[in-house]
Amino acid sequence: MKGIEKIKISTESTIKEALNAIDLGAVKIALVVNKDNKLLGTLSDGDVRRGLLRKKSMNDIIKDIYFKKPTIAKKGSSKKYLLSLCSINRVGQIPIIDDEQKVVDLFVIDDELSKKQHENSVV
After folding, report:
1. For 1-10, 13-22, 36-45, 82-91, which range has the lowest pLDDT when averaged over its residues?
2. Hey, how many other C-beta atoms are within 10 angstroms of the C-beta on 118?
């Protein structure tokens, strides 16, 4: 799980601001939230690339390029369930939300695989 404050952006964020958040977070996505911290969607570098190919500029807002129906999980979901969701949906990150749809965490499969590989390595 990752700290998520630095990867939260709004629908009014520019593409440049979004790319900065993605870069700072080092988890390959930004979380698009409203003023109440409710998840609206996600934005990946691929979403940005597709926007740029559609003639968007770095100063355009992300409102019409972010992914509005990401795979999500509820707070308290087991690691086994989250890994299964990643596999089934072919995603590397899953926003974790509470009962009010507010973002509380981000599950990142790369972190879990790194831990598993480290646990299995011979010392």
Report:
1. 1-10
2. 8
Neighbouring C-beta atoms of residue 44, cutoff 10 Å: 19
Do residues 31 and 7 lie in contact, with contact meaning Cβ atoms separated by under 8 Å?
yes
How does DSSP assign 12-51, residue by residue? T-BHHHHHHHHHHHTSSEEEEE-TT-BEEEEEEHHHHHHH
pTM of the model: 0.86
Coil vs helix vs strand at 77? coil
| Distance from C-alpha of 33 to C-alpha of 27, rounded to nearest angstrom | 17
Average confidence score pLDDT of the chain: 90
